[in-house]
Amino acid sequence: MSARKPRVTVLGGGTWGTTVASIAARRTDTLLWARDPRIAEAVNRTHQNPRYLAGFDLAQGLRATTDLVGAVERADVLIAGVPAQYLRAVLERSVDHVRPFIPIVSLVKGLEQGSRKRMTEVIGEVLPGNPAGVLSGPNIAREVVQGYSAAATLAMPDHHSAQMLQGVVNTSRYRVYTSEDVVGVEIAGALKNVFALAVGFGDGLGAGDNTRAMVITRSLHELTRLGVALGGRAETFAGLAGMGDLLVTCISPHSRNRYVGFELGRGRPLEEILASMNQVAEGVRTTAAVMKLAAERGIDMPIAREVDAVLNHRQPVEKTYRGLLRATPGHEVYGEGW
Ligand SMILES: NC(=O)c1ccc[n+]([C@@H]2O[C@H](COP(=O)([O-])OP(=O)(O)OC[C@H]3O[C@@H](n4cnc5c(N)ncnc54)[C@H](O)[C@@H]3O)[C@@H](O)[C@H]2O)c1
Ligand SMILES: O=P(O)(O)OC[C@H](O)CO
């Protein structure tokens, strides 16, 4: 790569893609690709994204486009902020135009339904010559875009590209740590959404703070066991992308995944909740993939199983905790189950 600062293209003009693009635009030449021309036009003219981040000012230097080919052709670094179920299709449209060897960073916290693949695996299949990594952590977009302090982990297969990319997204208020544990950071980000749904169930049903703490803590146990079985490092799950993100997603009133769980707990049908939202809650479609991965690895995931039962098998939410409470607890650290 030349001595000039890398040109960044962010794919996905939703809440988080826009936020990360705004951060990068303060450091280097950054272009946001949005599907919706109204978003691209608003970013260029008003420096705001009225659909996803209404009222929040973005970096003045950020530019946006709907031209996918032009956006990827110019990029020294691609950052992917398109939800998990759509990323493959967007990359396939870009495949002949992405420059060889440039790094690709996923912001996505979900698994592809059907294939059960992580997003760096999807990137590796579509663009096998490009190193792929992930940026993930406790990052509620509306707080980051307002400049509240936050941190995340940037995992790349090699330390050199992690350090180069750190220079693109790290600021005094958005602290980006580096890691080589791509699998661990990515799995942590996808799984925490499933457990935020479980915490939302309890909150919607009127459970107490002790219950919430119990579910979060046992969720971390479950998340770590599957993550390690899939090749992640145990210490990653105790860090920002693991415990940190699980915590914020399970307690923040701004979390979409917790919101879906909460509304289910209050008795609203899933279809109605999803139809009323204009944003993605990745856990809804990731849960079935998680259950299949767990079954393949022989990992018991009782909390995730209850979420799957409610989302995909029409189990009434109020039965969730009753089902869990029937099980006798085993050893806290080495035990398999709930
Ligand atoms: N919002 C946050 O606070 C936050 C923080 C960290 C990570 N993330 C992750 O970032 C990813 C993107 O989430 P978001 O919050 O920016 O999304 P969002 O819900 O704000 O916006 C939806 C996005 O999906 C795109 N989209 C919808 N249908 C599409 C299709 N058919 N093809 C292509 N694109 C389509 C929209 O254009 C838009 O960019 C998710 O994996 C999410 O978990 C979000
Ligand atoms: O709003 P959610 O539930 O998608 O969570 C947003 C971020 O992933 C929190 O780190």
UniProtKB/TrEMBL annotation:
**Gene Ontology CC terms:** cytosol
> What InterPro entries does this protein's entry cite?
6-PGluconate_DH-like_C_sf, 6PGD_dom2, G3P_DH_NAD-dep, G3P_DH_NAD-dep_C, G3P_DH_NAD-dep_N, NAD(P)-bd_dom_sf
Record SUPFAM superfamilies: 6-phosphogluconate dehydrogenase C-terminal domain-like (SSF48179), NAD(P)-binding Rossmann-fold domains (SSF51735)
Domain named Glycerol-3-phosphate dehydrogenase NAD-dependent N-terminal is located at 8-160
What Enzyme Commission number(s) apply to this enzyme? 1.1.1.94
Task: List localization entries.
Answer: Cytoplasm
Tell me which family the UniProt entry assigns to this protein: Belongs to the NAD-dependent glycerol-3-phosphate dehydrogenase family.
Name the HAMAP family on file.
NAD_Glyc3P_dehydrog
**NCBIfam families, per this entry?**
PRK00094.1-2 (NF000940), PRK00094.1-4 (NF000942), PRK12439.1 (NF009098)
This chain belongs to which protein, by name?
A: Glycerol-3-phosphate dehydrogenase [NAD(P)+]
The species this protein was found in? Paractinoplanes brasiliensis
